[in-house]
Every structure is written in structure tokens, then in C-alpha cells.
DNA sequence: TGTGTGTGTCCGGTATTTCAGACAGTATGT
DNA sequence: ACATACTGTCTGAAATACCGGACACACACA
């Protein structure tokens, strides 16, 4: 939906992508997988070729290699492909290579069960915020979010914590200007955002509401590495009309559990 | 340790693996990821180069590309790398692309909780059996197994179900001869194995004990695709001394749940 | 101090792979 | 019936990614 913006934006000065650019197979693989992740559904080879702007013949070859390796697999009967079994195994290996992850998972399970609210594990991916894992509330109506979707950092509570090791200048350089513009057109003032970060750094938590959407109240608490760095956050996503007493109760619980999961004191 | 055999061995007659085999980057990537999966721990670039039998310079380049893409990430401070965040996301996407998976996960959680036994989701990967997911018993001593480890098919109960669509000849062609040899030296007779498969096909379940190891009793029930094909099995791993009445009780429960998860009748 | 082993980077040549385009086959719409 | 659009496979040829090997550096051991 937003992909042929390439042409439009690139038009003015930079010859961004000419047709004939020979690229490495590896790079194509990486682009392919990321495109598929963004697409969030099985796709046909021809479409993939367009998505990553690669020749069809090349794309076929790559896709076939990945199919052989089970990194992709055929879905349905009409040439759609999506991630395959091997990806599941690689991902699982990533998740479990340290015992720490087990504890995080258990905590998320427990919190989701106890509170009945949506619990998320969040981190950064490049200069975007991303949901790494998610436990939903069991009710018929739930606020859920897909793991892997990328969101501008300023839209999120977690983002304020995840940037708290940066200086103001570093933050300014790190965040694309357009990421300060919310979906409804409002723009977050850079100074206010920097103040939020400083605030989050001091308090050891962060709360936002009505940023990414109008109906959620988000609270995030840091999971610190041994070094003290914050690479992930634990996060509760509440309906915006959750009453204040319950909110502070939940915030306290969230902070407590995050503290227990941290490898360094909060 | 076995890598400079190239020169020595190659001399007499067989050019088993000559040093100079140029390979595509893509293939290297695939080999690298699978090697890392088998290794099950972070590894250094030099070691990876040996594992996949690739030139060091090439390996460095590939690893750096994958690091940039977050498909790998640095672990610790001394040059170890392992799967990265992107892999987690790709794997998650694989797991959740169909609603079916949600139900399977829920069922595994429920069964693990109710029975207190180890529950596994199993499938094939090439001509090996592989654990796709696993819920452990909560007790202090548990029979657990790692997701992603590959095991010869004849060693497993699930394997008998997963081959039940094949003719005898197909099975014979599919299973490497050496896979009939158990770890303790015993050899499974091919005919007995084929009979087991036929049996599993008729009964709609399969049980084994004392094959892969001496202390487990495994029972597997098929998860059928819409087409009727069996691509995955649900599996209970019990201590071998579990009394018979409880075994049949658990088997019945297992079959019932597998039937509910199947997209075609069992 | 010297010897051995391993790391991370760089370079130039060539064996290979990517690419463009053509092809036959199939589905869709007019 | 024709036209259009897409799929999956092949081909030759040019561009280049991979390789071997060299380098500087770091660490361990004797």
C-alpha cells in the first residue's frame, strides 16, 4: 500500500533505484524475508519479485533454494509461499539460547493470567519499536498486537525507556523526523519527547496514552541487561478507560516483575 | 579437527572434498544457519567457517551481512554469534500464519497442565524426525527435549505415523540404512518397522518404548491436514514405568485432542 | 623472547551467478 | 475468438562475488 512511494519521493534528485542493479544473493534473501515479514501473509513469487524489486528469474531461483532449505514453504495450492519450518526452529533457538528468556516467558504468562490484560515484550529493531512477544487477554474482546510489526519509536511508552541511554543529540539523530507525526496528523514536539525520555530514565518506567491509537493506555518497565542497558521492556496495554486506582496497582506489579527479571538493579 | 584431511585423504583416489569448491552465498547462508542450529550454542566465526567448510574470509563477509540484518547477533564480548532477533520474528510469523497453530499451542498448554507430562509437537525435516514444540512437566525432574534436534525416524513413535502415507518401497528408499541402528547398537528390522507403520496407519496412533532411550514410553497421535495427510503429530513422553491404566487413559486423551485439532477426521 | 595459534581486514583474479529476455502453458476477461 | 496477464523454466553472456592468500595484531605457552 505504501510501496510505490519510492518512485514519487525518489523523483526529485536522487537516482534511487535504477532498474539494472545487480545484487548479491544474500542481500536478496534478506530483503525477501523482511518483505515477507512486513507483508504478513503468504505471497506469490511474482509479487515477491516486485516487493523486493528483483528480477523474476532471480527470485524464482532464490525462493527455490529457500524452499529446499525449508526456510520457506508452499502455502495452499497456488504458488503462495511463506516462512517455513526451519525459521521456526531458528527462532526458537534464538529465544531459548539463554535461560533468561524462560523466565521472561513465564512471567508474561503469569501476568497475563493474573491481570487479564495484554502483556508485551518490546524492543528495538533498527530505529523502530517492535513487539517481540505478546500474551493476550483471554476475553472475547482483546487488545492485541502482532509480534514483529514495526512502529515509530515516539508513538510508544517503551520507546522512551529504550532510548534512555542516549543523549539528546543522539536521539535527534536516531529518530527519522517523520516518526514524530502521529497517524491522526498530530506531531509530537521533539523537546517534549526528549523530556519524556529524561523522565522515563529517572522514574524507571514510562506511560503513554492516545499516541499510536486513541483507545489504549500503555505502561512500560525496563528489563535491564547485566550492563544496566535497557534492550527490552515489559509492557501492559490497557483500555484507556481503566480507572486510576487499578492503573497504579498494575503499574506497581509491572515494575516489580520487570525488576525481578532484570539482570541489574533498576 | 577433521578439516585438513582434505589434502591427505584426497591424495590417494577419491577427491572427496577438494579445497576449492566455490559455492553460492545463499547456500553458505543456509549451511551456516543449519550448522548453528545443530551446534545449539553461540559460535565464533572461525569455528563456523570450519563447520560449514567455507573460507574464513567468505564466512566473515556472510556473518557480517547477517549481523546487519539482525538474523544473527553478537553474544558476549568475544566474537561469538548466534541467531538474532529477526529470526525470532520470522519464526513467530511462521507459527502464527494460520489460526490452526493457536489451537495447537493452547491444546499443548492445556495437556501439559492437566497431565503434568511432557507434550511434544513433532514433524519431519528432510528424512529426520524433529521436535517442533514442547511443553515440559513442571516438576523438578522432567523428561525434556530440545526443539529442533533431529533424530532418525525409526527411533520414534511419531515417525511411524508420519510415514504412514508411504508405500513400503518408498519407506525403504527414504530412510538411510544407518538410521535403523539404535544408539545402544541394536538394529531395528526393516520388516518389523514396516509392520509398525502399517499398524500405526490402521490404529491411528503409535507407541514405542526403549528405542531412542531406555527410560521413556512415547505415544503419538496424528494431526491430519485437510487433505488427510499427516504432517505433524502430538506426542506424550512418559516415564517408562508409568502404570498401564494411566497409560491407556492418557492415550485416550491424547487421541481425543489430536482428533479435535485435525482438519480431517482421523 | 620466540613460537604457535587465532582473529579480523583487505586485495586482485576468475569461476560463477545474476540478469534480461524468450518461451510455452494457463487463466481471465471481452 | 482474441487479447492480456501471469507463471514457471531455460539460455547465453556480462558483471561480480567468492576465494586464496597476505597482513597486522593479540594471546598463550614454553
How would you concisely characterize the structure shown here?
The structure is a homodimer of 266-residue chains. Chain A is of the alpha+beta class and 266 residues long.
Can you describe what's shown?
Two copies of one chain form a homodimer. Chain A has about 270 residues and is α+β, with helices and mostly antiparallel strands. Chain A folds into two domains: about 5-90, Winged helix-like DNA-binding domain superfamily/Winged helix DNA-binding domain (Arc Repressor Mutant, subunit A), CATH 1.10.10.10; about 100-260, Beta-Lactamase (2-Layer Sandwich), CATH 3.30.450.40. In chain A, about 45% of the residues lie in helices and about 20% in strands. The first copy, chain A, has ten helices and nine strands. In chain A, the strands form two sheets. The first copy, chain A, has a six-stranded antiparallel sheet. In chain A, strand 8 and strand 9 form a beta hairpin. The longest helix of chain A has 18 residues, at about 245-260. The radius of gyration of chain A is 21 Å and the shape is globular. Chain A starts with a helix and ends in a 5-residue tail after the last helix. Mean pLDDT of chain A is about 85; it is low at about 1-20. The interface between A and B is large, with 45 and 44 residues. Chain A binds a DNA duplex (30 and 30 nucleotides) through helix 2 and helix 4.
Amino acid at each position: 500500500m505504501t510501496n510505490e512511494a519510492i518512485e514519487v519521493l525518489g523523483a526529485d534528485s536522487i537516482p534511487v533505484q535504477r532498474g539494472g542493479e545487480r545484487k548479491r544473493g544474500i542481500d536478496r534473501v534478506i530483503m525477501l524475508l523482511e518483505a515477507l515479514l512486513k507483508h504478513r501473509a503468504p505471497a506469490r513469487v511474482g509479487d515477491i519479485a516486485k516487493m523486493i524489486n528483483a528480477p523474476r528469474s532471480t527470485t524464482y531461483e532464490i525462493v527455490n533454494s529457500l524452499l529446499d532449505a525449508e526456510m520457506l514453504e508452499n502455502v495452499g495450492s497456488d504458488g503462495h509461499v511463506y516462512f517455513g519450518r526451519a525459521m521456526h526452529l531458528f527462532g526458537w533457538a534464538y529465544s531459548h539460547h539463554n535461560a533468561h528468556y524462560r523466565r521472561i516467558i513465564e512471567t508474561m504468562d503469569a501476568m497475563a493470567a493474573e491481570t487479564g490484560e495484554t502483556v508485551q515484550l518490546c524492543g528495538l529493531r533498527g530505529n523502530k519499536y517492535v513487539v517481540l512477544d505478546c500474551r493476550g487477554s483471554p476475553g472475547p474482546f482483546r487488545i492485541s498486537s502482532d509480534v514483529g510489526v514495526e512502529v515509530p519509536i515516539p508513538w510508544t511508552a517503551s520507546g522512551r525507556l529504550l532510548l534512555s541511554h542516549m543523549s539528546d543529540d543522539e536521539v535527534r539523530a536516531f529518530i527519522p523526523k517523520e516518526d514524530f507525526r502521529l497517524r491522526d496528523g498530530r506531531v509530537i514536539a521533539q523537546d517534549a519527547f526528549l523530556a519524556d525520555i529524561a523522565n522515563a530514565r529517572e522514574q524507571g518506567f514510562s506511560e503513554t496514552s492516545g499516541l499510536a491509537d486513541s483507545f489504549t493506555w500503555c505502561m512500560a518497565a525496563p528489563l535491564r541487561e547485566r550492563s544496566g542497558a535497557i534492550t527490552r521492556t515489559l509492557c501492559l496495554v490497557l483500555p484507556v478507560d481503566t480507572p486510576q486506582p487499578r492503573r497504579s496497582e498494575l503499574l506497581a506489579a509491572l515494575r516489580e516483575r520487570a525488576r525481578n527479571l532484570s539482570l541489574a538493579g533498576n
